[in-house]
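User: Structure please.
Assistant: Input sequence and predicted structure:
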Amino acid sequence: MEPSIVTGINHRSASGSRGFTMIELLIVMTLIVVLASVGMTQYRNSVTRAQEATLKEDLFRMRDAMDQFYADKNKWPSDLAELVSEGYIREVPEDPMTSSKDTWQTENAEPDPNNPSSTGGINNVKSGSDRTSLDGSRYADWN
């Protein structure tokens, strides 16, 4: 064999495997972007699901504390702070949808015809958020 032929073959195979083509790089980058966007969507949904679970638990606990307050004192609490001061809850929880303790929306209790001596107060609490949940309902409408 002649040395020029061998050199030419070696030169061609070496230049053919030197790097990636632009198309190959674009395909790999596109796949990375697609996988990253799917991962971010799943992460955001999992954070929202965790916030929703926390909201449901907080609403249940505060409503249960209001019911216990009424059963013990035969009247509804005047506000959420009264539940704390009377020891029914340790503290008013932060609304996970608004990240604030001050945005809870309370509902006033209807007068009890069986208990005319009872004063008004609150018998329900809802989130102060105007956002919509993953199932399409408003957080402020959750019961």
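The first strand starts at residue 105 and ends at 108.
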